[in-house]
Amino acid sequence: MLRLNPSAHNNAHLLLTLILMALSLTLFEPLQLWVLLLVLCAVIIRVSLYLNWQKHQLSIRTLNLMAILCAIVLAYFGWQLGLLLGMLNLLVMASSLKLMLLASRRDYFQLIGVQFFLLGAALVFNQNIAFSLFYALLCVLLLLSLACHINPSARWPILIKRVGKLCLQALPIAVLMLLVLPKLGPLWQMPTGKGTQTGLSDKVSPGDLAQLARTDDLAFRVTFEGNAPPMSQRYWRALVMEDFDGSNWQVHPYRRKLQERYKGANQTFSPQVSGPAHSYQIIAEPTKQRWLFALDVATSQDSHVWQSHDYTLQSRIPLQSNLAYRVRSYYQTALHEGIPNLDKRLNLQTPEQANPRTREWASQLKAQNTSAEQIIQAIAKFMQQQEFRYTLKPGRMPVDPVDRFLFEEKAGFCSHYASATAYLLRLSGVPARLVTGYLGGEMRGDRYMSVYQYDAHAWVEWLSDEGWQRLDPTAWVAPLRLQFGLEQAVEFEQSFLADAPLANLRNIEWFNNLRGLMADMDYWWSRWVLGFDQQNQQDLLKALLGELKLWKLLLFSFTLVAVIALLLAAYHIRPWLQARQNLPHWYYQKALKLLARYDIQRPYWQGPQDFSMSLATKSDKQSLQHFAILTRCFTHLNYRPLTAQQKKRLVRQMRHQLRKLKRSLAKK
Amino acid sequence: MQAQVQQAIGQIGKLIIGKQQEIRLALTCMLAGGHLLIEDLPGMGKTTLSHALAQVFGLNFSRIQFTSDLLPADMLGVNIFDNQKQAFHFHPGPIFSQIVLADEINRASPKTQSALLEAMEERQVSLDGQTHMLPSPFFVIGTQNPLHQAGTYPLPESQLDRFLMRIQLGYPNWQAEKAMLQQPQSQRGQALPTIINDELRLKLQQQVLEVHASDAILDYILRLVTFSRESERFANALSPRASKALLLAARAWAVTDHRDYLIPEDIQAVLPAVAEHRLRSSQADSQTNSGLSLQLLECVDPLAA
């Protein structure tokens, strides 16, 4: 059966169609390609209907067939997607099918409702300020589409004005809800695995970091409560790697197992700390991994942060979206805890084969020097004498990389130096491990800094009697890296950010200013909107109320509700009082409302007497009679000259009849 | 007293069958002391209705058939020199009667039309410096062919405004027309008895003035006229004279309903007759204007507080 075209020049439908398309495009990553294609098809169909190129809708039968096919395909692929992604795909698929079907008011309202839900779901995947603003815009456009649907003949400026007014009214409520409503944790686990991971990885071959250092993506931001530490002290620990196979470093499998076990038992490592500390909040960008970043020695009270025995912090859930956490770093405390025996055992392991020249040299070192400090001195001296270079473009070292680096290339990135040094130390009998993370950070203002991927760094920790000592071999060959960051350190070879687009613009001042401004805005967004967590909320309440107590909280919420109620009342009280003053009118309108509930509506223009007459066919005799008397009283009161006495009597009669009418209608 | 009004309506209804509402409106117009314009095609009973009204009220009646060559003097009368008395003597024209049927008023030239309309407004005739009072009561019942008929001079809005009401009779329905055809021939020529004599008419007219119009009703009238002025649908809106006319007509209607106060239904009953010829649509394509006052009615809530 052919169905007529309900969308021809229907602006509400067109707007809805475009919104669905825009929304799906922003969800490019989590959506499957075929779902996007389906959306595109639906959009094309709807637009051609709008332009009246196509006069008829698809038949229901075709659509049903398509829906079954889609459901089968989704069921087939959906297993691997996990709940959230599967549901998202299902929702987008369903709304595109509904869009093809869209004919009645009901379809339209359903689709609008689903779009609002999808907007909320989309915010799970895209949270930065640009997307948030875009989604807000889509939300307003959805409302506009609704307004247009309800009042199709109204002109756009009127509709926009109306919707704008509504949004402005809703804004304070939204802000209030953000500030006051309790913050719930995420209700579902975000799926992992899909999408490329960014930033560090838990396995490092020395060339990797150099690659990473050529991108300028944001890694995390820090807001300090006091002063920020100097540049050369900003060693952000992320991962500790203790397993070396001759070319690559990774987190030791045994350590990993141990961490799992502790986490399972819900035990966290809490180091003894003393001395001065830096307090700060970090907002980490999503990495889809669990590790977090902090200065040594870090402690965190946040419930979603867990600490491992290698002093690293980890999140209990993978970082699918920005994660904020608070850290106190006691920078004078030594790293002397952990699990000493295990640490020693793990960090002396070396591969049997590979890198023969290094092993030979290490045995010489061991023979010539007695203490660890001396060995380190010797390595430093060797590197400085042999004029090692620091470069972002290290040569390829596929076989025996340490040998090749130390004795042939003599040029490498921080990870090469750290890897070689740690290996040498291990070979000489000093427990040593590789730590990866970030060094540095760009201050913006005097309180907060941004740390980018190009700040990625690797350094060495060796175990002395006082605990783990930090050793940064990069400092021997490129002291500039520590003091001024990577850009200065590799300035001579023009390799900084070689892979980032627009990198050449970094030298133009206004572009840098613009970049700074964007970063600032993004920071404020992350800090105050996305990062507005339970802690912030409590701080705010504390700032408002002082010490938090139950009765204070209760009082506060009641006051809040009361204020809102009062405002609403103030808004409504005048019309209400006015209506209430004219009692006959008041009763008559009440009677009309009663009848309207039983589907008897007075035409807008009809006089009371005519209306009462017209009821004869629509109502039962009893209520009819009551309403007729009511109407008569009303007309007398309203249009006849009466004495106060008569008026009183009639009003009383009206009230009486109204009650009777209510009763007789209810009986029906 | 009320019985007589009903009786009058019934009597006229015997001649013009199935047009109760229009007859009542015509009667209302007479009670309100306004002039009546009947617009319809030839042969719909315009003349019959006017005759019947004159008879029921017991007033003397004259009929002027308007043609394009009718001059004002033909209607108003002339001063003729009397040789015997050596003086001009006024010979009154047909307009000097209590009910004047101005038949096919829009066939006359504008000059004649305006002479009639001046007489209607002033209730006197000025000729050669002499003023002659018209008899009292003085009703003009104009009839008019629809404008698209050949050889008509449409009345300008300012002159249409002088008529309190304009009614259209329209075709009778099946039963009514059948009843009319079944009437014995002899009955048709019979004159109607006088039912509302002068005394009663004056009493009723006094009552009309005493009908109570509450604030709510006045507000309703004001809402109606204001809407006509503010809406974009109407090129010509309702003037203050129109709102006065509306109130007056509604009062007279209430009297025919034996009520001494106004209710919104009174306004709604007379509004099409009172307002239709004063409104003009702003849309060029709707030439007939039909239903403009109904549109107006349906846009205004009589109960709005």
TrEMBL record, chain B:
Residues 228-286 form the ChlI/MoxR AAA lid domain. Residues 35-165 form the ATPase AAA-3 domain. Pfam families: AAA_3, AAA_lid_2. InterPro entries: ATPase_AAA-3, CbbQ/NirQ/NorQ/GpvN, ChlI/MoxR_AAA_lid, P-loop_NTPase. This is AAA family ATPase.
